[in-house]
Amino acid sequence: MAIPTAAVRSQVVVDPPDILETDIAIIGSGMGGGTLAYALRDSGARVLIIEQGDFLPVERENWSFDAVHTRGRYKNSAAWHDATTGNDFVPGNYHYVGGSTKLYGATLPRFRECDFGAIEHVDGVSPAWPIEYADLEPFYGEAEHMFWVHSNKGEDPTDPWRSTDYPFPGVPHEGAMARLVESARKQGLHPFSAPQALDRHPGGACVLCYTCDSFACMVDAKGDADIAAVRPALHAASKNVRLLTNSEVTRLDTDATGRQVTAARIMHRGRPIQVRADRFVVACGAINTAALLLRSASGQHPRGLANSSDQVGRNYMAHVTTFFLAIDPRRKNDAVYQKTIGINDWYTAGPTNKYPLGNVQGLGKLRGPQAKMGQPRVPMPILDEVTKYTLDLFIQTEDLPLPENRVTLNAKGQITLSRRETNVAAHRELISNMKKVVRKAGFPVVLTRSLGVEATSHQCGTAVMGDDPATSVVAADLRAHDVDNLWIADTSTFPSSAAVNPAITAAALSLRLGHSGSLTA
């Protein structure tokens, strides 16, 4: 991973004054905030990105299974509290320039066209969005080019219509994944090339290594928000975008009316400072965005900033997810990069399933240290050997928004999550279907591990968008109903979670906001 260039470093505010002024303050540099800064880079407005962390360090441990997974070297979030079990846990939520995308799996599917409408599920109805797929379609295309997305048009039967093709062809399947793809097609399924954000085009830096999913890329070949959005924004000729790192925003203050945010209170390397701006955008990720708004309660906003609806923190969704390992004990899996498959044949209701079941996609090749997290009692030498034979998949089902599934702050001010999973029966049916598929493909042994509340990488829904201020936090243009100069640009605004990774939808929403002119008018 390359050290930021001098041109990028020149736009980093190293020693801020006690009061720092700008036109637009963006709190968070992940997929939502970083992409928005990119969209505004030539707008003429002074833009300041505020990031709690720093650039992720460049070191050999970036690609170490032991450092990343056994010792959790890059986990730098404060512990959160699980209200169900009463236990604390450190989430996979990262504070670096680029946010959690620095260690994400780089799978960037669009939401399906139907995902923007109401959908009946086994446990209830997934609500409609106040916008349609067509409203985001051109911005999906722009985001796919920004983040170097590789896939093949026409392979996925649920892929929505598109005005532009994928910028790069899909990554070829290899090893055991290629065998599964061939067999699945013979079984009548439609496996497709999963949309991957990689610098794999001619002249690109990607070498298709096995340290991609859940690792930082040492050669800057993963399309994360740092490399594909923040650094280009800082490097733009206009020099309108600056970055303030190591800065935790503790609360937002408003004027006496409560209709205008006047300042962000920040702890910068242990020193209190303020950022004052004409317009503020919160893009901290669904959980931290909700927490910031709740911490910003005041006389004008007693339940939390922009929370007259009492919806801030509610409707938390994170997908119902399972690690699925198919094993052929007679043959090793020689795949190095296996995040190449997607299966959506049961994504919507159909002739064999009454309700939508979800999405299947490839996982990065598991090794012993990752398997140890799910099987702590099994000796590492055994896990190292077993994982040589596994084909690793990730199964996810849509999670419904429930008011009681929420983010709150406990008496210590600690983030607390309350969550009851929905559509579990549909998820089990999808797992059962995939067991049949892999066994027919020659993988007789299947191991699964379902993920719990600690699986927060697909978090969304805590500051939902809608037309009615009584039941939503922001309007369709992402502006808060209760505050005139506050927008939210991350997955917290999602009315539903769909059943695919949310990142590129967050990016498309930010591009739509950035190009709308509402932040620069």
TrEMBL record:
Residues 421-509 form the Glucose-methanol-choline oxidoreductase C-terminal domain. The keyword Flavoprotein applies. Keywords: FAD, Flavoprotein, Oxidoreductase. Residues 23-296 form the FAD dependent oxidoreductase domain. The keyword Flavoprotein applies. It comes from the Bacteria. One of its GO terms (molecular function) is oxidoreductase activity, acting on CH-OH group of donors. Belongs to the GMC oxidoreductase family. This is Dehydrogenase.
